[in-house]
Write a structure and sequence with these properties.
Blueprint: H1 3-51, H2 54-70, H3 74-80
Length: 81
């Protein structure tokens, strides 16, 4: 390759590298901003759900389901015989 073209290619690649780094910084900043916003919204959602008592009801339902799963069922005792 001719040295003239090599120099032009190097200059072009350096410019492309700068453009890509700027895009990376911009996207990284936007991602961080969105993650912070998501965390804030999830906290507000949790506060709202707990204020309406939905979280307590879901916890009670979950406990009831766990109790049913942990207790032996009739099918299990019949299959052992």
């Amino acid at each position: 390759m001719d040295s003239k073209y090599t120099a032009e290619m190097l200059k072009h690649l350096e410019k492309q590298r700068e453009i890509l780094m700027d895009a990376y910084r911009s996207m990284s900043h936007e991602l961080h901003r969105l993650q912070v916003e998501e965390e804030m919204l999830m906290r507000k959602f949790y506060e709202l759900m707990s204020a309406h008592g939905v979280l307590k009801e879901d916890a009670n339902r979950e406990n009831a389901l766990n109790d049913r799963e942990s207790s032996p069922s009739n099918c299990d005792t019949n299959s052992q015989r």
